[in-house]
Protein 1
Amino acid sequence: MANHSDLQKVAAALQEAGRLLLLAHVSPDGDSLGSLLALRYVLLRHGKQVEVYVEGGVPDRYRFLPGAETVIASPGQLSELPATVVVLDCGEWERVGLQAERFAGLPVVNIDHHRTSKGLGIVNYLDSSAAATGLLLFRLFAYWQEDLDPALATCLYTAIAGDTGFFRYSNTTAEVHQVTAKLLAAGAEQALVYENLEARSWSHLKALGLVLERLASFALGKGAYSYLTAADLGRFGISVADADGFVNYPRLLMGVQVAAFLIEVEADTYKVSLRSREPVDVSAVAALLGGGGHARAAGCTIKGNIEQCMRQLEAAIHEVSNVKCCMGS
Ligand SMILES: [Mn+2]
């Protein structure tokens, strides 16, 4: 549990700011977008000037979120430098998609729940035991005694539902359910959130067919993985963002401790999503490969063809756990 004084310091820093720029990570998910738009909503209530930047814009399935239409998608559209920068759901500048130098000398506030986060800001509110950044914002808004309304509750619900797999993952604590009950009581549009977050395109499901066909084991059967190449993406007409969630399929296999999904984002460069069960800490695996995340869900980027990437992944898993690795399929 994070220190309450960290929450108070973050609250004070936000209240002192006049103009703010809110940032999260590239490949935005429900938690990052729900959190960005929830904080925007509350800061506007407080009379602040707020800009939200998401590299590449808001993916289609999140466009229903209140305020999504205001999100700035390219750096050129940002107004003058803001007075205060807030980084949500992210602990590394590299993942924000903007040059850190751009913000040199500006006060930075960081609110995050990734285990690998060290704190980017002058003030930081970090709690890796929290299921979602949205939960940290709920605590901040409770501290400010903010009124919840349907728009704000829907943003926070999206954040928490997104990072808990709709309340199924092991991070779904009593606090998650208690907070969610308050969000529903305030009018969070849960059916709308579910329909949008779970909707998939034809091309996504067709590509899933290939992902399932390619399922293979590694690490002596303790791991399962699949992958898509850049050529596959072209064939199915899907983007890297459309391939979101494929890692959950190898994770479904009984007895599998580590699930991996690799997607070729540029020639011989794979973005790797990792999921795990006890005892493997995939945030440590990802950190060894230059990435980060949580114990049960993490990611990194690896260079090489699929066999080379898998060898690096196995070596990293071997280094952080007692799972004995060898390539198999
Ligand atoms: Mn998150």
Protein 2
Amino acid sequence: MEGRVEILNNADYAGRMAEIEKSSQISPWSDRLIRECFAPNSRSNVLGYFDENCCLRGFLVYSVLLPESELENISVEPSVQDQGIGTSLMKSYCDILERLECEKSFLEVRVSNDRAIHLYSKFGYFKNGVRKKYYPCADGTREDAILMMLERSKK
Ligand SMILES: CC(C)(COP(=O)(O)OP(=O)(O)OC[C@H]1O[C@@H](n2cnc3c(N)ncnc32)[C@H](O)[C@@H]1OP(=O)(O)O)[C@@H](O)C(=O)NCCC(=O)NCCS
């Protein structure tokens, strides 16, 4: 898909982000949590992916506390998944990590989320732990989280 990644600096797109989040995630972030990303004291940063019609189709939330960063969330609208949007968002995020000379990035992902695990592995993340029964499931059970980490290559 032809589009572009931009930094979202204010809550103008929070409603649209909440729509994408609810349609794509098993246990979505609340509207409040999404709005809090844009609060003045928030440590979260948001990247948005806009399609050729300037419609927000996906977003990525991260925080940085040098020398580390956490990838807090990534969501792409279901109708346009598997078209490279997640890859574009991850590339922009990894470019930022490189620019900031961030040494490590951490994330958590459901053990069953093969697509996301594939995406993270493509950017060099590797598994470095498991958090048992971390995520709630729709049927009332719980699912393990895989912890993944990216280490900046020392040049
Ligand atoms: C995970 C997610 C962000 C990826 O975004 P996306 O735009 O679909 O990703 P892309 O199209 O850039 O890349 C998807 C990759 O996964 C691969 N893939 C698709 N289905 C897969 C599967 N079942 N198993 C393994 N890999 C798979 C694709 O082939 C592609 O890999 P490639 O680039 O090597 O060909 C998106 O699917 C999403 O929002 N999912 C729901 C929310 C979510 O799970 N977020 C992550 C929470 S940790």
